[in-house]
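P.,

For your records, the input lines for the assembly:
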Amino acid sequence: MTRRMTRRTRRALTWLGDAALPIFVGGGLLGLPFYQTAQVRGRFLGTHPATAGATLALVLLALAIAVFSLLRRDHVWANPAELTWRDRPDRDRPLRTRLTVALLLRYAVVGYLFAAGGVLLGWPDLPLTAALAASSALFAFRWANRPRTWVELVAPLGLAAAGVLFAAPVVLWCAVGVLTVVALVPLKRALPARRDELVAGWNARVVRSVSAAFGDVLMLLPRAHPVRMRLIDPPRIALASFLGRRTALPFAVLLALAVPVLHHVFPLVGSTWWTAPGAYLAVMPFAGGLSDMTRVDGLRRWVHTDAKALKYAMFAVLTAAAAVWVTVTWLLGLPVAPYAVPLAAAAAVRTVTRPNLDYGGGGASVDAGGVYTPVGLLGQLFRGPDLLVLGTVVLGLAA
Amino acid sequence: MLVGGERWLFHDLDLDLHRGQCLALTGENGSGKSTLLRCLYGLQEPTEGKVLVSGQKPDERDADFRALVSVLLDDSALFEEYTPAQHFDLLGVAAPEHDLPQVPARQLSAGQRRRLLLLGAVARPHRLLLLDEPERAVDAAGRAWLARLVSGAKANGSAVVIASHFPPLVTAVADLVLDLDDE
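Structure tokens returned:
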């Protein structure tokens, strides 16, 4: 007797068939540290000694990134049509489910890094690592359900700082205690998210999806906040654009803490390869104002200033910001790469002054990772990163 | 002189507009008012014939041309984080007299945003002013203010072209009226 396959099973098997190759390749690559340990260690560490402290630093950094990303509250959204036509009494239930899934996924990655780091570099103190993971997960879950406040960012930045400074076990046990207490302390009771918050979250999600579908990362640059200053010349316009995007500062700080840890874990990768992309990513969100003025005709018409002067002013502001960022990484132990500073600023300016993507004039198509993509579109998408990669290669070879 | 899909939107259109004059474009939705404005600003080219602004072929990509023409089109926008005064700083002009609150643009009402856009369009140095449905989102008092604003621009020597669905405004400011339903 034959049994009919359910639609769900059929769909799952279809997905498995489609994803078989990526799963096979991805699984193989992720498994490398476990079955080709010596080769992987040689490739990343060379003759440098492996230390369990590096694993703990890597885990702390991963925990910091996990908590940081959960505190962005990307799970707080609802389709406005659902709210209008099929509003449910308990709006928070799907939000809690989404947050739980997001948390589990992130901590699965942390678990993988712990295991891979342990095999390659040495196993850190297991109870301490487990306590750090549990307390930070509890903190992230509780605080991501509360109204947003800047104080909460102390936790992920503190975890990353503990990693980069190779904090002593006693300090880390104190951190576990603080995170647990702060997570459990009944501060202000979390209220259900308001409709406008849910709709804003939905809109942000739509922007993320569109950005991913069209490969246009400039859509993801942060919104600006008001800045009280006169905008009478290019330097001030550039500075106001920079200061208006101060919400990107914690991300830049997290990057500054992350890069020295990564350099320590992968010592064979030259410092330029960390500094230039790191500085580029750190300053990029602050260049959003120039992107707006370049891409939106209605905004450009407000700006009387010559476009070139504005570009140079933004370059100067971003160079200063990148210099500060590189100095911080140097103070945290990363060898300094001074030429990465203007390179990162120039690449950021080149990226944000890209005209709107022209999907029609792509020309011939090439196979880009399994997807046929027009060459012209690739050229547009890589305007900015192309300079970064080229400059980093040149600086890396010169170093 | 332009094909909108399968049909002619207008043809045999021949007119001159001088400084200090206002041309009002009227007609139903889809009659071609905005398209004609786009042709005048060089965002679109007529299928046949030509448009000249101060002897130049319109092309909004050309900075010299943009210096001649100020526009309020559908794509006009505000920097949400900046106050009205900061917007005029960006334009490099003194803020005209207005009663808009000095708060970030995102806190302005729809009517106040429209007023700021109108003030910006008029304050920008220009010889030709193009306004697409300027009365949109503006209340009754605001419409009277709008008529004064356009009259002021004319008095300062601007040629003005407005596309409008608001007959009192057309009556108040227009020297020439082109009804595109008749074209």
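Two observations worth noting. The domain at 2-73+127-182 of chain B is CATH 3.40.50.300 (Rossmann fold). The mean pLDDT of chain B is 88.

Regards
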